Amino acid sequence: MNNSTRTILAGVVLALLVGALALVIPAAASLLWVTVMAMWLAITAMVLTTLFAVGGRRADGPQALVFPILAWQFLGLHGLLSVVVLLLDAVGVWSMPWAVLLVGHLVILGVFTLLLLAASAGKEEIDQAQTVVREKVTDWRVLMADVAAARDRIPRGNPEAAVALKAVEGIHDALRYSDPMSIPALASIEEELRSAISELAGATGAAQWQSVPRLADRIQSVLKDRNTRVKALK
After folding, report:
1. Could you tell me which residues come within 8 angstroms of residue 117 by beta carbon, excluding any fewer than 6 positions away?
2. Domain span at 226
3. Residue 220 belongs to some domain of the structure
4. CA dist 123 to 110, 112, 115, 149, 230, Å?
5. Average pLDDT estimate for 126-133
6. How far apart are CA 226 and CA 223, in angstroms?
């Protein structure tokens, strides 16, 4: 259970506890009015708890907007129900039994809670997926940075290093146009790719220009195999 779900459930408990005031206030007062006031406090507690939990952080993305939208809809629905019932009672048209009004409020609270929990579960799934995407993209950028660093170590204008420079630039371009997303089944191939790029970095660092094209061909072969499998398995 994540923190958002815990906070939502805490808001439900708080709302129920505050709403229970309608059952303990002396009967001398208007039970209808007491019920409306008690449930209004409960609604306010629930809405504020929800907004505090997940509704105030723009960094969570558009999926977080569902929480304040639900909260304000919930508040408006309860407000409309309370105002209509009190007006009908004040003009003598119809006096709703307080117990019926209480049940109505509790039903709306239950529906709202279920919607919030469903939205919270969906948001958690989206957040986890976004985390995976960020990690994959970051890992791929690290590989590109390693290749770029290896390329920058190759001197320009050196005839012996010209072939090595062209080969490393080809690797960098191939990585740039490759899909960074993959699946766990390709972990061994991607580890082989990282190992080969590490060897390439070592070769350029040691100025072993003759071995660079061979390593570059190996990297291109592994990368092509990896990209083919990524397309086939998606």
Report:
1. 5, 8, 9
2. 153-233
3. yes
4. 20, 16, 12, 38, 27
5. 84
6. 5
